[in-house]
Amino acid sequence: MRTIGVLGIQGAIEEHVRMVQSLGHEALWVKDEETLNRVEGLILPGGESTSMGKQLEWFHLLSPLRRKITESKLPVFGTCAGMILLAKDIENSDQLRIGAMDIKVRRNAYGSQINSFVTDIDVKGIDHQVPAVFIRAPRIECASPEVETLAVYEGHPIFVRQGHMWAASFHPELTDSADIHALFIQSI
Fold first, then answer.
1. Among 16, 25, 171, 181, which one carries the catalytic annotation?
2. Active site residue 171
3. Which of the following is catalytic: 25, 141, 142, 173?
4. 164 included as an active-site residue
5. Tell me: the pLDDT tens digits for 68-125?
6. Which pTM value belongs to this model?
């Protein structure tokens, strides 16, 4: 059994907690550095990335998170807004972020809230299609060669991995499938 943290300041926190628990692991809401130091892996949920970045600074978590991810190599999985927080480059934005993953993203690239959709995708390492929920989803515009693409939609990577860092444009936590979470946790 692993202890997996879910950044608990804003976004789809409870949904990720349920996914982790459904796989038989302990899930902790991470709101402070003390709890961050207790986890073996961390999920950065979807939500509103600008707000999340500001709250990370207010809660004095931005620097500790950046250190844990970049120096201590804490396994991390960012979904939607969590992917934006992980990205080194955000098109037309200087918002606060962790900035650890060698990707450039464009916020809301798949449209506004009204353009939300669900589609089934092929994922490297999973032998069947899995559902992916896109809500104001970011798109990866480019990535360094060190970033492995695990799933693609309309010619763009939507699920990637760079060493201990994972990121998805979509919300796997809003489906009944725990396959994506299992893939991440198995890698720890």
1. 171
2. yes
3. 173
4. no
5. 999 999 999 999 889 888 998 777 767 777 778 989 887 765 656 676 778 899 999 9
6. 0.92
> Domain of 67?
3-186
> How many angstroms separate the Cα of 93 from the Cα of each of 43, 59, 84, 97, 127?
23, 22, 11, 10, 37
* Residue tagged active-site, from 16, 25, 80, 181: 80
Catalytic annotation on 80? yes
Convert the pLDDT of each residue in 21-40 to its tens digit. Answer: 999 999 999 999 999 999 99
* 27: Cβ contacts below 8 Å, ≥ 6 apart: 4, 5, 6, 16, 17, 20, 21
Q: At what angle do helices 62-70 and 49-58 cross, to 10 degrees?
A: 100
Q: How many distinct structural domains can be found in the chain?
A: 1
User: What pLDDT, on a 0 to 100 scale, did the predictor assign at position 17?
Assistant: 95
State the CATH number of the domain containing residue 128. Answer: 3.40.50.880
